[in-house]
Structure formats: C-alpha cells, structure tokens
Amino acid sequence: MTDTKADVNPFGRLNYLVIDDFENFRLSIRQMLRSCGADSIELVSNASQAIQHCTYNHVDVVLCDFNLGEGKNGQHILEDLRYKKLLKRSSLFLMVTAETSKEMVMGAREYQPDAYLTKPINRAVLEKRLSALISQRNTLMPINREIDRENYPEAISLCLQMLPRQPRYKTWLMKTLGDLYFQLGDLAHALKTFDDVLAQRELSWARLGRCKVLLANRSFDQAVDGLRELIANHPDYMEAYDLLAEGFERQGRPTQAQQVLEKAIEHSPNALLRQKHLAQLAGSNQDLETSSEAWQRTVELGTHSIHDNSEHYLALGQALSDLSEGNLEEEGKEKAREALTVLKKMEKRFEAEEGISLRSQIVQCRVYAGQGQDKEATKILERIRPELDNAAALDAPTGLDYAKTLFRLGHESDAKALLREMSERFSNEPDILQKIESLLDEPVGFRQKIKARTLNRDGIKAFEAGNLQEAVEIFSKALEIVPDHAALNLNLVQVLMKENDNSPGNAELLKRCQTCLDRLAGLPEQHRQHRRYIALQRKLKGLMV
C-alpha cells in the first residue's frame, strides 16, 4: 500500500527541528507544522542540543530563532552546521527572527539560510513558504544528492538533463552548473556558463562567478574591473568584496585589498573570517592599529563561533605588544595591559591546548621588555628558556616568536643562531623563510621598521636619480636603525661601488663596502639576498686587487 497522505502532502515525509529558547513558541510552531501534515518534529531550546541532534539524526528542515539568549545565536548554529557538514545540501534552514537590523541580516546571510521568517508567524505564511521550498527541494534532490557524494560529473550531467525540463529552476541550475565546473577545474565551461547567463540578464552571482574564473585564469585586471563594477551596482554583495580583496592581493596591491575589506566590514561587521583576513592583511601592511582592532573584533566574534582559535588571541597579544613597545605614555601602558589581559584570557580559555602557556609567556616577556620592565622580562625568559633552547623541537610560529623576544632582550647572537637553524630546517617552505628573513633584517619594533623602510625607498629614489651622495647618506641613516638589514647593506655597497667607478682607487669607499659585507657574513644561504651578497663580494675583491 502507498501512503496517500505522504504522496499528497510532502510535509509528512520530512524530519523537522525547531530551535527556540521560548517553550510556547516551540509548541506553537509544532502545532502549525502538524496542521500542515508534518509528523517527525523535534523541539530544542539551545545551540548545543540542536548541534547534538543534527550530529546523530538526519534533519530535512530546521526552523531556528536568531536570538537564543546566552551563548550561541542562530547565526552561530548555521555556521556550525555548515562547517561540520551536519546538514545535507537538500536540507532547509529557515532563520526565524523578530530582529531585522542590518547587522543581523548581513551576518546571518553570510552563511546563506534558505529563507527568513519574521515573527509573529501564522500557519498560512509558514505553509506557503515551506511548500515552495519543499517543492524545490524535492525536484532538485537528485542533483544535491550527487553533490553531497562529491560526484560532481554526475551532478553536472543531471543539471544539463533537467535544464530543458525544469525552466522554473533555470537560475538555480545554471548557478550550480557554473559552480560545479569551477570546482572541477573546467574553467572554460564555467566561464561559458556564466557568460550565457549574463548574455540574457545581468545577475550578480553570474558576474561574481565570471570574475572568479578570470582570477583563476590569472586575468587579474579584468577580474578586478568586473568586481569593482559589481560592488558599485550591489554594495551589499559581500562575496564580491572578498573576491576583490583577493584580486588586489594577486596583483600585489595589499593596501587596496585592505581598503576593500575595511569597506566590506562597514556593511557587515559580524563576519569573523573577514575580520581575521583584515587583521592579517593590515598586519602585513604594518598598519598595526587597524590590525589590532580587527584582531580584537575577531576574538569577540569567536566567543561562540566554531572558528574560535587561540591563534586569534595570540595575534592580538602580539599586535598590542608591538603597539606598546617603547611607548611609555599612558596610551602605551594601556596597550601593554590589554596585551597581558588577552594573553591570560587565552591561557584560561585554551588551557588544554599543548604549548599555549609557553607561547603566552614568550609574548608577555616582550610586553614587559617593551615597557622598560627588564627585570620582569628577564625573569620570564629564564623560566621558559629550558623549554625553548632545543631549537629542533620548535614549530615555526613558536621559533619566530622566540627569536623576536631574544632580539628585544638583547640576545642577538642567540636569536640569529636560532633563525639560521630554522632557515635550514624550513628551507623548502618559502612563507616561513620570508618571515625568517624579515626578522633577521629588521629585528626592531614596528615604528623603527617603518622608518627604516621609508629611508630605504628614499635611498633607492636618490640612487635612480643619480644623486649618489644623497643615497649614501640615506642608506647610512637607515642602517643606524637596522644595521644587519641585508638589502640595505647591499644597496649601500652598490652606491659606494658606483661612486668608486666615478673616482677609481678610493680606498675609503672600498673599505666601507667591506664593512657592510662583513656584517652579512652569517647570512643563511636560503636568504633571498644571498646570491647578490656573493656577487658583490666577488666584485669587491676584484676592485681591491
């Protein structure tokens, strides 16, 4: 026998989960669902119960209130379920809320709920919205099933078969088709799919998809231009900002990338991963004020998020430490206090995490040193050195942080020895090598680092303009700040050699060249300036014969 009721009313075939902290509302929704023909309905009051239920049970439809009192809200639950893949693609997630603030809507929209329902809800509205979603769900089920299985070629085949038969869902099918081609790396078909859509109608998702393909094809200028236009026409389309920032980074324009993310955050401030990206980008741009603010927001947003991580606290502590270093005014002292508070909070929150106390104390040591409290800094360093002096056992982030602290406390030879050992150990990891080089070249606070970099740029301009004496003076000033900076020393050597070409036989110039090269005697072979160093050393020997 067939279940006539289930055939006529698809509500009866599905498993429902209602999440709300008010019992009366949960009971009311259950009654409405039952009157629509639903049978399997689970009611829970908070996030932990909801996530546990989805971990062990298949759920077809989730109706979740946004505000759930203390702890995780509806956005956190959706984020959690998506991240852990506890919902199938065919499952429906409806966000229920009485709140309609832009921040809430934009934040929740980042994780793409299937619909919003605004309180108060009546049966007619619930049935109408759910009926349409369930009908679409059932029609597209074969495709979503193959995508869940990661059988993308079969999913593409089903999309192509369904397109002429289901014109009602053409938009969904074309978007899915373009995304599937892109995931498979079939960029030509992906581009054609998005272009076919755009030829008929300007749709933001198709424009975004096209730009994503252009970026993958390394057509950076076209992609950036397209994304700028897309944002101008759709200023609330957050994915376009993220992709534009990526485009600027791929072009080698990190400052513009940072500005794009700052603009995006004005529209949607509650996206943790975007705040984190901004924090990292601003940090690499030496904009520590913006970086520390973004790390602060990342830490706050992580309180109930699946993306919460000790690295966020550590990065915030490091940024505040750098900001407070050498600043003995009240502002600097306040930054130092904030850094210590954040690090202590990290130790408590992630106490079960291996090495967390050690990482915290490395930064604390630097905070005290930066505030002139050398006695306290030395006390911490003596306490942690036995654990840290086995360099081969240190991971890259810990080793780099420890070397930075050793430099701050005047243990330069120990810091350089550690970094040389790490250069050999991580010789096949370019990102780590770049960080090692940066620390070897500029083992100073960020304010001094910025000053030295500015002088370096000015020196290069003077050299290119033919103002050799001015270039020598500028490079010499920069080297007073960072005497072991490889590029700066070699830049000065080149200028001095050029001066020697103009007036050969100047022993004093050649002696200064030798002094610069002697400073780089311990430069690791893995350093990007090593080959240049060897070449200039040979040239100098030839000049001194």
TrEMBL record:
Where does each TPR repeat begin and end?
238-271, 452-485
**Gene Ontology terms describing biological process:** phosphorelay signal transduction system
Q: Does the keyword Ribosomal protein apply?
A: no
Question: What PROSITE patterns does the annotation carry?
Answer: RESPONSE_REGULATORY, TPR
**The organism's place on the tree of life at top rank:** Bacteria
Keyword Repressor found: no
The alphabetized UniProt keywords are: Phosphoprotein, TPR repeat
Q: Which residues carry this modification: 4-aspartylphosphate?
A: D65
Task: Pinpoint the Response regulatory domain residues.
Answer: 15-134
Q: Which InterPro entries match?
A: CheY-like_superfamily (IPR011006), Sig_transdc_resp-reg_receiver (IPR001789), ST_Response_Regulator (IPR052048), TPR-like_helical_dom_sf (IPR011990), TPR_rpt (IPR019734)
User: What is the recorded name of this protein?
Assistant: Tetratricopeptide repeat protein
Species, as recorded: Marinobacter flavimaris
